[in-house]
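REQUEST ID: PR-0412
SUBMITTED BY: lab tech R.K.
PRIORITY: routine
TASK: structure prediction, single protein chain
INPUT:
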Amino acid sequence: MTPGTIAALVRWGAVIVACILAFIPATIASRKGRNSTRWWVYGFLLFIVALIHSLLIRPDQKPRGRWFLVLAFLVDYVALAYLVAIIWYSTTQVAGLPSMLSLVREPVSFPWWGAALILLEITILWEVLGTSLGHRVFGIRLTGPDLRLSQRAVFLLAQHLSLASVVGVVMPLWDKESRTWAERLTGLMYTRVRQEAGTRVAWYRTSWGWCLTLITFFTLMSGVFLTEVSFGRFNWDAAAKMIRRLFRPDWAGELASGIELLLETIFMALMATLFAIPIAFSLSFLAARNLATGPWRRGVYTVLRVILSIMRSIEPIVWAIIFIIIVTPRRAPFAGVLALWIHSISDLTKLYSERLESIDQGPVEAITATGASRLQVILYGIVPQILNPYLSFTLYRWDINVRMATVIGVVGGGGIGQMLYQYIRLHYWERAAVLIVLVILTVWVMDYTSSKLRQRFEEGGGSRATDLAQLPQAQPRE
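STATUS: complete
OUTPUT:
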């Protein structure tokens, strides 16, 4: 079957679909005993429009489409819908008007499909009469020999007639010049053009610029109402009392137990990091793009990347809540270790694999040319290049785990954070001040020490990697 035959079948198939959609309302009205004359007239007119569209179409040997116009229209429609929603919400909060949901729920006064059609009409007007946001994003311009307002109005009317039939909508998919009926009639056409630096217009002179400005302003305004921002809600007396008690820490009664809890927190982070290192090291070779050669390795790489992204998107505090339910007895430090361990595996695997993707291929090719096995290539060609960066990433992750271990204690994950939350909840500010000071000192020492060690590892380079990089390149065999 030739492409021309396929295009013709698709063309007449679209006409049949348009006819079916046109006469369905008339058939339903006839079966229910209602007056169906107007629906039959509408179906007949729609059939005529679809037939005209089909006669104007010239099948092309290579059908093509302009999907960027659809994407630009969706961007404009969503942007306008969002703008209308936040403007309505802001005005209802300021002026006390009825909410949009209450209007939409009343189909007699304001049906939802009426709002959708009005918004559709506004979007079409915006794209025809100006440069819309979607057109600005995709670099689309309305071009033609005559861009006067009268010609744009004819183009707009022809667009509405095109929307009256299915054929007119899908016509550019197989038209020889990939043009719609409106573009043929008026000579105007949406095209992607590159705007030169000297022809740029200031944002305040464009419709898309004002649209972005209104979206930004009313988003901030709606955010103020949604989050109930109000500085008048501050309890200054309670704040002053809390601060005075925080500056009187109970060193004698809380220092010993605080140090014990602090050591527990540090070892929670350490154990989670140590447990994650061998797993992340092994998975990093499977998650590196440059090492994923072959179809099955590429499939493993894709699946592993998806799983790691899902694991990394879930915060450690959520993992802690999950493991608190699984681990017995509850509120044990082991639940916090497991939460940090899961997140550390996904994070370290990502960091390790990205470093693997940037290695120098020279030593790898040189060692491979000697007839070394896959394991020997990894040990002597890849590991020397990644050893120091891996140590740096591991220290960085341990630093992060120490901070997160304090946070996951709030939900019962053990460590100093759990006791700190209890003291704050019970307003034991003098005891809480001791734990806060210990956390601050620990985080500062860990941050300073790990930064110095990371700097040492990153600047040290690694003599073996340098020596391997100087090996002669492999010569192709005759």
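NOTES: The two ends are 48 Å apart (CA to CA).
REVIEWED BY: pending
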